[in-house]
Design brief:
Elements: H1 2-15, H2 22-29, H3 36-50, E1 56-65, E2 88-89, H4 92-104, E3 109-114, H5 121-137, E4 141-145, H6 151-160, E5 164-166, H7 185-197, E6 201-203, E7 206-208, H8 214-227, E8 231-236, H9 253-266, E9 271-274, H10 278-282, H11 286-291, E10 297-299, H12 311-320
Parallel strand pairs: 1-3, 1-10, 3-4, 4-5, 5-6, 7-8, 8-9, 9-10
Antiparallel strand pairs: 1-2
Bound molecules: iron/sulfur cluster.
Length: 332
């Protein structure tokens, strides 16, 4: 019964802070369209109750773009596909400038990403320079997203003061081999376990709309929930020309909103971040609906290879919705 899952979620998630199980998340993902506003309302109440009204604003910059040896079928940065993305490396002064601009928007998080399977010695040397230069010049938390890590690399990032590490599971374990063949879901999971062991915050999310079933969306929500991540970036596939997923259909707005609500109800305390693809899937209204449906973090400025909204649009919207931007002092 429809009322049942909303009623159950109200008692279990809203009152007691216990996330939905896989079977329960599936029930939410199967709710008919006319129930979507009610479940978004509940997801918003859950977010306000367990996370508060603050919204975490983050910037993201690419240290190395394109030319990645892996074959993630959604990714225009793979060197295996014929995409318009060219391999580019950013220098340290430009990176520090990007961090400064990001901090000026009120953002508390600045994430350095690189399109690699995992860092080599050269990339680790650049990251070392980048992190210490940013930490010397700008007051902002530095996060990294550099792929699969060895133990030594995990230790080094921790010692550099990187406080959060992003590595996405991307999709349900059962669907992963249809998305990536050059590394395994388990390898990703091991890096996440290492990040946790090192005491860095775990940022781990996925992409909706990569040909997975509704059941596999619920599976991903449950697998993320088992990791207990500090932050979950939720992406919607933006099919990129030249990738194997170029012809997949864009997730409908209603399915995207159902997913946002289901992930919030499965992960009541996490920072749930709107990442790539939101403009495409949800249009102009999407940010408003998402932020009123369980989302409590946004990325300002450009995503990695596609254009995001202008930072000011997002900040204006948060002000209008009376959702304060999380302050740096509370995160350090
Ligand atoms: S490892 Fe990362 S950068 Fe490389 S193809 Fe996969 S998603 Fe893209």
């Amino acid at each position: 019964m429809i009322e049942d899952i909303l009623g159950v979620a109200r008692g279990q998630v809203l009152e007691r802070g216990l996330g939905l199980s896989e079977a329960q998340a599936l029930e939410v993902l199967r709710l008919p369209d006319e129930r979507v506003p009610s479940v978004l309302e509940l997801a918003h109440e859950v977010r306000m109750r367990w996370c508060g009204p603050e919204v975490e604003v983050e910037g993201i910059v690419s240290l190395k773009t394109g030319g990645c040896p892996e074959d993630c079928h959604f990714c225009s940065q793979s060197g295996r596909f014929n995409t318009p993305v060219r391999a580019v490396r950013l220098d340290i002064p430009s990176l520090v400038e990007a961090a400064r601009e990001t901090a000026a928007t009120g953002a508390t998080e600045f994430c350095i990403v690189a399109a690699v399977r995992g860092p080599d010695a050269r990339l680790m040397a650049q990251v070392r320079d980048a992190v210490s230069s940013i930490r010397d010049a700008v007051e902002i938390n530095v996060a990294c997203s550099l792929g699969i890590l060895t133990r030594e690399q995990g230790e080094e990032l921790r010692d550099l003061g990187v406080h959060r590490y992003n590595h996405n599971l991307e999709t349900a374990r059962s669907h992963f081999p249809n998305v990536v063949t050059t590394h395994t879901w388990e390898e990703r999971f091991e890096t996440l376990a290492l990040v946790r062991e090192m005491g860095m915050q775990v940022c781990c999310g996925g992409i909706i709309g990569m040909g997975e079933s509704i059941e596999q969306r619920a599976e991903l929500a449950a697998q993320l929930s088992a990791l207990d991540p500090d932050e979950v970036p939720l992406n919607f596939l933006d099919p990129r020309p030249g990738t194997p997923f170029a012809d997949l259909e864009v997730t409908t707005a209603t399915d995207a909103l159902r997913a946002i609500a289901a992930f919030r109800l499965a992960l009541p305390r996490t920072v749930l971040r709107f990442a790539g693809g939101r403009e495409l899937t949800l249009g102009d209204l999407g940010t408003r609906q998402g932020v009123l449906g369980g989302i409590n973090a946004v990325i300002v400025g450009n995503y990695l290879t596609t254009l995001g909204r202008s930072p000011q649009d997002d900040l204006d919207l948060l002000a209008e919705l009376k959702m304060p931007v999380k302050e740096l002092s509370k995160t350090l």
